[in-house]
Write a structure and sequence with these properties.
It is built from three helices and six strands; from the N terminus they run αββββββαα. It is an alpha+beta fold and 120 residues long.
Length: 120
């Protein structure tokens, strides 16, 4: 049985609304993406969610800009891993993203400061 033109149009309209909605959400999140820390904990504002992790819960900071992440333990004792997406560049993406060396060095310095702060 072949689908009618009306059902195809409805499907395309639904996909269009979905893409516009997700795209609008993503565009507003990109501008706010950040990793910030203070005396209490670290706040990671990523592309899809925001997470606040208490300093006492942090077990490790992967201070490599390619796969930057915070390893922490939740209240139930389960180990968690949260990527630092505003800083991470991905394994082989550096050349594709055309990230300048100075930017990579600044990210690496920030990650080292974050790791040092987490150990205190």
């Amino acid at each position: 049985m072949m689908a009618s033109a009306e059902s195809w149009n409805a499907g395309i309209a639904v996909l269009g609304v979905l893409f516009v909605t997700v795209g609008a959400r993503w565009v507003t999140r990109v501008k706010r993406a950040a990793v910030e820390y203070d005396t209490v904990g670290v706040t990671i504002v990523g592309l899809f969610w925001t997470r606040r992790i208490a300093r006492s819960s942090i077990r490790d900071v992967h201070a490599d800009h390619r796969w930057a992440a915070v390893v922490w333990c939740d209240q139930r004792g389960r180990w968690r891993w949260t990527p630092l997406s505003p800083i991470a560049t991905g394994g082989g993406w550096r050349g594709i993203l055309l990230i300048p060396e100075a930017t990579l060095e600044a990210r690496q310095r920030y990650l080292k400061r974050l790791a040092k702060w987490a150990r205190l």
